[in-house]
Amino acid sequence: MKFSLEWLKDYLDTDASVAEISAALNAIGIEVEGIEDPADKLAGFRVAEVLTAAPHPDADKLQVLTVSTGEGDPLTVVCGAPNARAGIKGVLGLPGAVVPANGMQLRKSAIRGVESNGMMCSVRELELGDAHEGIIELPADAPVGADFAAYNGASPVFDVAITPNRPDCMGVMGIARDLAAAGLGTFKPAEVPQIAGEEACAVEVRTDDAEGCPAFYARTVRGVSNGASPEWMQRRLLAAGQRPISALVDATNYLMLACGRPAHVYDMAKLTGPVVARRARDGEQVEALNEKTYTLDESMTVIADQAGVHDIGGIMGGEDSSVQPETTDVLLEIAYFNPESIGVTGRKLGLATDARTRFERGVDPAFLDDGLAILTGLILEACGGTPSEVMRAGQPPVEAKVIAFDPALTARLGGVEVAKAEQRRILESLDFKVDDDWQVTCPPRRHDIEGPADLVEEVVRIHGLDKVASVALPRAEGVAKPTATPAQKLERRLRRAAAARGLNEAITWSFISEREADLVGGGRWVLDNPISEDLKVMRPSLLPGLLSAARRNLDRGANSLQLFEIGRRYLEDGEHPSLAFVLVGAKGARDWRSGKPKPFDAFDAKAVVMDLLEAAGAPVANLMVMGEAGDVYHPGQSATLRLGPKNVIASFGAVHPSLLKAFDIDVPVVAGGIHLYAIPQRKSSGFARSAYAPPALQAVSRDFAFLVDAALPAGDLLRAVRGADKASIVDARIFDVFAGQGVPVGKKSVAVEVTLQPGEASFKDADLKAISDKVVAAAAKLGAELRG
Amino acid sequence: MSTQHEQQAEATLTRLETVQSATEVEAIRVEALGKAGWISALMKTLGGMSPDERQVQAPRIQALRARVADAIEAKKAALEAAELEARLASETLDLTLPAPTTPKGSVHPVSQVMDELAEIFADLGFAVATGPEIEDDWYNFTALNMPESHPARAMHDTFYFPDTAPKGGRMLLRTHTSPVQIRSMVEQGAPIRIIAPGRVYRSDSDATHTPMFHQIEGLVIDRDIHLGHLKWTLETFLKAFFETDDIVLRLRPSYFPFTEPSVEVDVGFRWDNGKRVLGGSGDAEGHGWMELLGSGMVNRRVIEYAGLDPDEWQGFAFGVGVDRLAMLKYGMDDLRAFFDGDGRWLAHYGFSGLDQPTLSAGIGAGA
Q1: Complex prediction ipTM
Q2: In chain A, which residue's Cα lies nearest the Cα of B344?
Q3: Quick check: pTM over 0.90?
């Protein structure tokens, strides 16, 4: 909301500077978003008198003026305005001044051979209005030579943000009241003229919707002439960013901005019969002032006559009965609308207006008569006319709230000691009534005050938040205790392990497009009101986000990329913390030793998954490598890792070529995912490790080469070998896999190195023979033959 | 032994000097000292001598044997040394060539900052709490004192789902981390000290707003907590986070439905080559104030909604943008880049996995 200093001074008697007022506004909770001084823009523009005007010798449409600025010799100025003539006073921009409308800096220059020492300005050039037909003509008594900004009453403009709890400050008067309480001056309430009704109100008003519109006050004014509003009012409205329209409309806008009180003016000629606040009928339509037609329903309160709806109550008036230049008789409406209904109606219609903003937050229910009187006074001043008596329908809810306040609460909650007398002064200056035993009566305009905590806020914000001293939080004795949960520690370990392993952590959108979601099996959670189609479905998998990021990187010329993300997947049964990664394109850059790098393959993905699971403390030795990794993967180059047949902990593999194609990716990508919640949390058993002493005797190793079915998973063979003699076999490693020459068709040769650890005594030949036999026998169960 | 033997020994030594290979040296060794070598044969003659003769001859023969044997060993060693030298000379590597590299991974700045905040607040006794992002209207709004008709709801630009929420209204994407306040109080009761970091969502997008961003919520509920504690906590945490005592806060009264009184917190900064650098009073020359976070004393109604007695328990809450903190501390200026996954950006602004924030080493990771 914007307002000028001169306007503020109507309600606040103060000598405070702009900077002091600005600081005070911030301090009491009215945030200053900007301060603009029009005088800055009008620097170098002076009141000047045209002494002579003669045609330009070389240009038909130009004149050569001599202009007095009250000092020195008159200046020669070339001017194209038809109304420039000797004897008028206007505004001269001197060389160096910058024209507000176009930012052009004026210079002394020759125009068609005649020297010009400045520019006589139009209203539009100075951004004072829309008129641009000719130069400004000032009254004859304008002091020649005066700084135009000062002469014109230019006043600094504050742009403030009013929090939604303070509709009473959505008018200059309310802001002045708060500033006065903070010691910035003396509050001067708006003067309320005594309007003597000269006739009965010719239009009957009533409210048939006591809930939506509990009070509807009105009066007619007949015989008005709706010309331009007074210059002083236009100036203030312009400063507030409100375009002047006509005297009647401007008067209502002025009342709203000055007192936070929306009102409406109807052209009586367009009304038939009683004017009634009632619920709209379903499907009823009204063309509003913004020239859009709205379809209403039964929940909405409207102001209507026999012919139809004239006003979406408290939100926007109707086009049909709006006042026009030729309007002569008007009906003034001051009503009280239920804030909640206004909000519901406004949201349903998607209609945001200044009136709605105020009614929705709650206007002063005790300001109907005064508001109407002030509005009438403004109209009578500008438009003349005969006012009627006030007709009042219904009652605004003015019951004052009384709060039992304990001034000690200020220190207890606000953390600052404020003397009782000062607390009382603050509350009273904000128009609260405080009786001897601290029963505080709230002004009805303060809808935001609900209880004692609100009064503490009033006291503290006016007293000064800067006076609240910092007080250390009580601290537990000793060193701070660890607070991270096992899940948090798991996530941190995984993140840092992945980063240490060469993967870059990305954060991608939680929402993806419907198409992307469908590519990975579809999303359960689809937004009703997405910001775009690309960000519509809560991701069921982190893969689409990473693949999209991969594509963007490839488009930028990357040829090798390792990305991971730790985040949630959004499924039917909740939000699942997950880790996913993609290894894209080549394993690295070309190297002088190894030449062109190979593309990442499924084993690279497996290595990442295994390393991360190990870092996470998962029992990697017990993991089973199984299939069914899902459609996103290459069916023959992917696997799941499980603890138990149904407990999938991770999956990995080459990304399915069709999925890559759908993401416009033409290099190989391998990927993996870990379900964080599926990793069993290790039971805490203190810090001591299990007992261990390195064996005294050296381990020995024996190699076995088996012929097995080509389809036999090597891992099965390895597990069988490992399990053949658990007492002695401490490790088994596959060191060769071979098929081809010398190996029968349909078979493969798998060579395993088995590490044997003797216990108390060294192995004798017979021991080794026995272990070997067990290994061969275990392998044989899987159809493996020992190669000769 | 005869002079002939002496001469033969001299000849052997001369030959040794001229030979160039280990094979030739070995041939000479066999010829002289091998089983059938002439010196071995000479040694054998000692057995047939009389003791007197042996007494004379033995030292001479052994001396001769030793001379030849030592010369052979010396020659062998010299040849081996020469061979090693020649081999090493042939093995020279150009070590200006690059060594194999391992790719450097990184931790995202948002994660890093969340870890930093967890570390700071752990020292102040705050645990880290979490809650769902797909939230019930009741937790996101109603329990935070924003009933259905509340105008402040409109300021939240909420994303909605078609699903009906268990506690009324519709399911939505949480617009702030504040619902975690409610959930934590309901689950844990009071006293409580938590921070709750996480993703939040608002339908807003421009250079400084993205529809998804990160917030961290702070909540302290106890018996005697007041605004002064809030002020101290914010000052203390910001000083620890930015690792400078030159942090000046400006508290402004504000409005949030879930706090009363409500306080907006600005932090002073100075302009440095077009960038904002925290420090100093915003009122000082060349300085300004920047909105940093919202906070306040938890509204009685919120405490009631969370199932606690507001006459017994009171406290404060605050919420601050994590992305914003990261940008201010580490100097990024485009929020959208946070969520793009550009490998170059991540490598530049990301953190080493080893940069685990600790109190002893400092919370922040140096540039």
Answers
A1: 0.89
A2: A553
A3: no
